[in-house]
Amino acid sequence: MNPGADLLSLQTPSVLQGLDELRKQFRGAGPQVNDVFLLRFLKARKGVVPDAAAAIQAHLAWAKTVKLEQMVSSPPFPELPAVKRCYPHGYHGVDRVGRPVYFERLGALNLTELMRVTSHEAMLKYFAREAELQIREKFPACSLQKGTLVHRSVTVLDLQGLTFSGVTNAQARKFITAVIQVQADNFPEVMGSTVIVNAPRIFSLAWSFVKPLLDPVTTAKIEIIGPDPPAVSKKLLEMIAPDNLPDFLGGTCKCSHVEGGCLFSNKGPWQDARIVEQLKSTPWYHLTQRMAEGKSGEDPAAELPATPPSAEAGQPCPASPDQQDVPAEHSPVRINGAATGEAVEPSTPEQAELTEHQQRVQDLVNKLNAQEKAHMQTLEQWMLEALRWERELTLRKIAKATPYYEAEQGMRLGQLRTQESAMRYQQLLSDHDDYVQAVEAQELKLTALKHVDKDHDAQELHLTACEKLSQLTDRVMETEARRDTALADYRRALDEFERCRATKEEINGLHWACTSSCSLELCRPYFQAKWRHEQRVLDECAVLDSLRAELAQVQKETGAQVVGMGETLQDYEIAGVELCGASGEDEYFSADEDDSGW
Predict the structure, then answer these.
(1) Cross-strand pairs, 195
(2) CA-based Rg of the chain, rounded to a whole angstrom?
(3) What is the rounded CA–CA span in Å between residue 564 and residue 335?
(4) How many angstroms separate the CA atoms of 99 and 97, rounded?
(5) What is the distance between the alpha carbons of residues 164 and 530, in angstroms, rounded to a whole number?
């Protein structure tokens, strides 16, 4: 597909006919209802005009209900910096074909802290606002920089640090479901591709309830890479130039001039002063319409680059955004050019040694695969048990009880962490005192040496004593730093324990008159089972991490390489299991709670 071709000329006659019908139906609906807008809904509804028209009507009604115009013209909520600290995310640059890239470090999400600084309702409004601003600001700015229409984006989801408790949190599931629904209903066909990176097998639990919410066309645009940093960097650098890729994913950008780094910077063409000035004089809906027709933007700035500045010479740059929508084929597992399982015949001693290293790597790969298979079986067992509990209790009951049992578990873990950090602090305090005394003793020894005759032996003794004093002083400073860190850890653990205790006491206060039908009582066996299973999952993850670390070390020492583990989304599917999420009423008599935000 020609990247310079206009959007309308690329449509089939049947699509253009449907577009013409929608134009007639929504003439007068507002300038923002242009051809690009109509085509998004038409494509999302498989070209069926009545379905597209109904979806557009529903979107316009929703926009009026949530006051979308007022939302996008107002500044983001004041707690956004605090939100980003416990939920790192943000737009950062463009890919090699000029599309905006959105990064999200979902594995670093602290849901408990997030809900302390904001609310579900506020986050839903925030995501809706960001989705609309992507269409109004980011797409037009990228289009001006590229010289042709950009109407899709790229998403990179980093799952490093994802936990069992995070993916099994019922409140998180309800929130994610709501976000996906809002996006699908009101902002269809804006995703060009999504790459999920550093995905542990625990992600299977999340994928089991996310996949049924997605259109198969959307699912086909999603690619996944496991916890393999070289493979992650390789894939992302094929899509995104190093200066647009944050360093934590293998790029060179740190945005050190911005507090918080890359995900706080909002870096991209939409920050370019020349582009911003041009967008002030040309409404976004006029600009996107003209570009869809193959015309240039109004008052085009000649000095603006016609191609993405991130596309470096000698680097792969796909021909069109639409070609980027289709995930690339994964490479088979290969070790220095040989697919795993294939015999490599050595012809020299050096090759024989390399073959031995390759076999060692292959043995570790086999152990890793076997352990991952067993880990998936553990996750499947939990899914079946969770499905049974959800059918019995309903997701609504479990979600309502979650804050209480999270607080209870937080108290338990907080107490352990407080005790561990207190013991570590006391040990470091004792070590520090010992080193201080040793320094004082060494200083006395040096003082005594000053009165000794300055012969050769005395000078050697003095030099040795000075070196030892320097070493002891370094130990004092090092131990002081570790002691202060341990004290800070102790205080954080204590604060977390106290917060969890306050939350539990507050919820208990709402339940003083509850009956046995209360969500808290009904859900206790579910959470007890979940905690038991979580410990088993954590133990298995520790084994997997150890094997991956050993494999990486062997590769580093020997040069034998495993290229591309060949993972697909199918590898993360739990066959025959689908969480129900059924709704239902329960007796939560003491809780004064409004579910309207959900």
Answers:
(1) 156, 223
(2) 29
(3) 10
(4) 6
(5) 9
Find out whether 96 and 316 touch, Cβ atoms under 8 Å: yes
- Residue whose tokens read 């004089």: 281
Q: What is the pLDDT of residue 254?
A: 94
Whole-angstrom CA distances from 21 to 17, 45, 149, 343 are 6, 14, 23, 62
Tokens of 397: 């009951």
Q: How far apart are CA 403 and CA 112, in angstroms?
A: 8
Separation CA 256–CA 305 (nearest Å): 26
Write the secondary structure of 465-497 as one string of H (helix), E (strand) and C (coil): HHHHHHHHHHHHHHHHHHHHHHHHHHHHHHHHH
Instruction: Show the 3-state SS of 58-99.
Output: HHHHHHHHCCHHHHHHCCCCCCHHHHHHHCCEEEEEECCCCC
Q: How many residues does the chain have?
A: 598
CA distance 569 to 158: 15
Tokens of 31: 């300038």
pLDDT digits (tens, 9 = 90+) for 519-540: 888 999 999 999 999 999 999 9
Residue 304 DSSP symbol: S
Write down the pLDDT at residue 557. Answer: 84
Q: How far apart are CA 49 and CA 31, in angstroms?
A: 20
Q: Which CA distances in Å does 476 have to 365, 437, 438?
A: 44, 10, 10
Give the pLDDT score at 454.
Answer: 63
Using CA atoms of 422, 428, 433, 436 in order, give the dihedral in degrees to the nearest 10.
-150
Report d(CA 546, CA 479) in Å as an integer. Answer: 28
Asked if residue 493 lies in contact with residue 418, where contact means CB atoms within 8 angstroms, the answer is yes
Does pLDDT of 328 surpass 50? Answer: no
**Amino acid occupying residue 518:** C
In this prediction the pTM is: 0.79
Beta carbons within 8 Å of 535's beta carbon, 6+ residues apart: none
**Distances, alpha carbon 170 to alpha carbons 173, 312, 392, 395, 526, in Å:** 5, 44, 15, 7, 12
pLDDT (0 to 100) of residue 396: 86
| pLDDT tens profile 8-36 | 777 889 999 999 999 999 998 989 999 99
Q: Any idea which residue has 């007796």 for tokens?
A: 587
Residue 377: both structure tokens together: 């079986």
196-232 per-position pLDDT tens digit = 999 999 999 999 889 888 999 999 999 999 998 889 9
Q: Report d(CA 366, CA 363) in Å as an integer.
A: 5
Average pLDDT value for residue range 76-91: 92
**Residue 278: is it exposed, middle or buried by C-beta count within 10 angstroms (0-12/13-18/19+)?**
buried
CA distance 442 to 465: 7
pLDDT in tens, 432-458: 999 999 999 988 888 877 766 566 677
